[in-house]
Structure formats: structure tokens, C-alpha cells
Amino acid sequence: MDFLYLELQRCPTLQRGLIPARDSRQGRRKRLATTAHHYPRSVLVTGGAGFIGSNYLLQAVKAHPETRFVNLDALTYAGQRENLAALEAGSAYTFVQGDIADLDLVTALSEEHAFDTVLHFAAESHVDRSILDPLAFVRTNVMGTATLLECARRAWNGRTDVRFHHISTDEVFGSLGPEGLFREDTAYDPRSPYSASKAGADHLVRAYHETYGLPIVISNASNNYGPFQYPEKLIPLVIQNAVAGAPVPVYGKGDNVRDWLHVGDHCSAIDRILQYAEPGSTYLVGGGEERSNLEIVRLLLKLVDQALDRPEGTSLKLIQFVTDRPGHDFRYALDGSKLATDLDWTPSRNLEEGLRETVAWYLANGTWMEQTRNRSYDEYYETQYRDRIDNPTETT
Ligand code: NAD
Ligand code: TYD
């Protein structure tokens, strides 16, 4: 079973929209442009208590009932074990608190669980924090990835019936102008400590394939949104500030562009790539929904006002243009045609609908937001925004 079936069971709208895809799926193996098929039995998921990892595990444990998942997560400020509390009662899921850069721990887990798959989400993931503390990013994203690779190389010792799936970002390709798209063969050109550390990790993953034949796959995704995202990122930050009637900080003029991908779509793409991509391959995963930051912020403010029955336009006055992020990448956009052609995967969510659901989720999960914020969020917010908000660059 893959994620498409779960979504079909759950959602009548999707059922209508995707029935042809479901029918064609019966013959899908014939139409895929790959011959690979990897079915994971024992999976080490790293960073599964974070945003994308939590969404992935909540779907995957249901979709693959015969597969066992071990979630290794250090529970940094970004990790919430409680996201996966519902899985802890079952025997298919085990949580281990620990660091991916701890070679002894990863080796011991690998001996105990005989993993045939590593699904590597764990990372320091926020660009603004990478500007404040770059070495934490080098340590986890580069050294942590190197540790996992080395452990996999030793444990698998030339086996081909295994996979190391590295989750990466389109930010490794740098910054686009108003035109053009990233492709799988675009040269790397990272410009922030975050993207540079992810690029370093990607290079190591590829090097382990070329040098040792480790069966790896890499997926580079665009900006994700959806449930369980830590409120330092643009979308949950705008929602929570709008609900509280607090200033909504927009960097620069708000004309930077991102391609927004619903996390549920990202997770279904990961599932497809993990099972069907040829070892050594790379896929770009995008939402096909490019918007400027100002467009996204205005749309979110409209959706929050609607959800709270506020008069139209109430929250627009919260927008505050603030000092730009140093080295702010202007635009990310990607060509998802390789994933569509080879693996018959395209995103299913419309952005406005996805954001409406996302706003509803954050409004319904105020306790989650409170618990998440309780940790070090307020301190971070103060460091990152106090001067910016006290000294806006212009007002709307
Ligand atoms: P996140 O920050 O929400 O979660 C990261 C998780 O990794 C947390 O649970 C944290 O506790 C854990 N972690 C951090 N350091 C660790 C360490 N040393 N050892 C073990 N666990 C550790 O991140 P996310 O948004 O879920 O991103 C997951 C992956 O997807 C990352 O590799 C990121 O680069 C990539 N990605 C994210 C996006 C996005 O828009 N969020 C887009 C493309 C790619
Ligand atoms: P973010 O969610 O941090 O993702 P990334 O930097 O990885 O793309 O930011 C998305 C965009 O929103 C990015 O162009 C920076 C901008 N942004 C703001 O304008 N204000 C904010 O407070 C934040 C967090 C981001």
C-alpha cells in the first residue's frame, strides 16, 4: 500500500480527483521509467520528531503495517516526541532519543535492528538560525550525515537490497532570477550556512555511492507547509502572529519567491522515490505553486480573518516590512518533470486549499503551539525580531 491509498480512503474530494490515477496504478510498475523496487522492512528514520519526519511517520506506519520504524531524534528545540505519541503504543514504531553524529549509538542501533533502509530527515533546518550559529549546522548536517553514511557502509558491506534516502532541499542550488527553474543537473551554488551544510551533506551522500557503491537516493524539495511546522518558519509564524494581533514581519519588500509544497505531498513523493528510484539517483520535488512572500502573507492573513470571522482585511495592517535577511536568496523554483516522467508523481494539493487546511490545523491545535513555544522560542524571537520590529523599514 502506498500513501495514495490512505489519502483516497480519507478524503472524498481526493477520491473523485484521483480515481483515474488509482485505476492506472494497477499497471503502474509497467509505466514507471525505473526497474528498481525497494520495499523497506526495517527503517532507521532520523529526525522523525520534526516537522516533515512527524508527518511522514504518521502516514508511513499506517501505510506499511509490516515495516518496523526506529525514530532516532535528538529532540532539539525543533523536535517534539508528542507529535508521534499515537504511534508509541504499537510494536511497529520505536523512539530513541540520540544524536545522529554519535557513531557508537548509530552502530549499536543498526546491530540491534538490522536496518535495510535509512530515511534521513534530521537536520538543523532554519536559514535564519544558520546565520546566528553556523557551526551547529555544520556539525549536524555535515558530520551527522557523514556518521550515518559511514555506519551504513560498515553495516551493509556491499549489499544492494538496501537504501539510504537523504532528504535535502532545493536551496543547495542557490538563488534564481525572475526566470528559470532548478533541474536535477543544475550546479550547486549554496549561499547560506544552512544550504551550504545541506550541499556538503548531499556531496557526501553521492560520494559514498560513487566510491563505495552505497545504494543512495537524494530528494531535493521546495518549501514545505502543513501541520507540525515549528513556528520560526514563515507560514506558522504568520498564522500565530495574525491570531495574536502581533506584527507580521516581512523581510525586505516581500518580493522574494518560493515554491510551496504541502508536507503531505512531500511525504507521498518520498515514499514513491524510496521504493522506486534507481540507486544513485536524485529527484526534485516541488509543489508547482510559486508565490512572492507578500502574496503568501496576504493570502494567509485573509484565511486567518475568514477562519476567525473577522471583517475582511482586518489583519492586513499587521504586515510590517523589516530589515532583510543577509544573503536572502531571491527565488527558488524547480522543474519536477523527472519525478513525473520516471515515477508518475505530481503534487495533489492546491495551495489555497492546503493553506486553508493548515490555518484550520493551527487554530485547532493551540495547545501544540503553546507547548512548542514554551521551549526556547520566545528567546529566539526576541533575538531575531526585536530590533527589526522596533525599526520597521516602511509600513503598509
Ligand atoms: P525540523 O527542523 O522541523 O526537524 C528536524 C528534526 O531533526 C528535529 O526533530 C530535531 O530534533 C532533529 N535533529 C536535529 N539535529 C539532530 C541530531 N544531531 N541528531 C538527531 N536528530 C536531530 O526540520 P524539517 O523541516 O522537518 O526538515 C526535515 C528535513 O527536510 C531536513 O533535512 C531539511 O533540510 C529538509 N527540507 C525541509 C524543507 C522545509 O521546508 N521544511 C524543505 C526541503 C527540505
Ligand atoms: P522560511 O520559512 O524561513 O524558509 P526559507 O528561508 O528556507 O525559504 O522563509 C520563507 C521566506 O519568507 C523567505 O524568503 C524568508 C521570508 N520570511 C519573512 O519575510 N519573514 C519571516 O519572519 C520569515 C521567518 C521568513
Ligand list: nicotinamide-adenine-dinucleotide, thymidine-5'-diphosphate
Oligomer: single chain
| Terminal CA distance | 50 Å
- Percent of sequence in beta strands: 15-25%
Number of helices: 16
Q: What's the pLDDT, averaged over the residues?
A: 92
**Could you give the count of β-strands?**
13
Which overall shape is indicated by the principal axes computed on the Cα atoms?
globular
What is the level-2 CATH architecture name of the domain at 32-225 and 260-290 and 331-350?
3-Layer(aba) Sandwich
From N to C, what is the helix and strand string?
A: HHHEHEHEHEHHEHEEHEEHEEHEHHHHE
Sheet of most strands: 7 strands, parallel
Helix content: 40-55%
- Residue stretches low in confidence (pLDDT < 50, at least 5 long) are 7-30
CATH superfamily of the domain at 32-225 and 260-290 and 331-350: NAD(P)-binding Rossmann-like Domain
What's the CATH class label of the domain at 32-225 and 260-290 and 331-350? Alpha Beta
Structural class: alpha/beta
| Strand order, sheet with most strands | 3-2-1-4-5-6-10
Which topology of the domain at 32-225 and 260-290 and 331-350 does CATH recognise? Rossmann fold
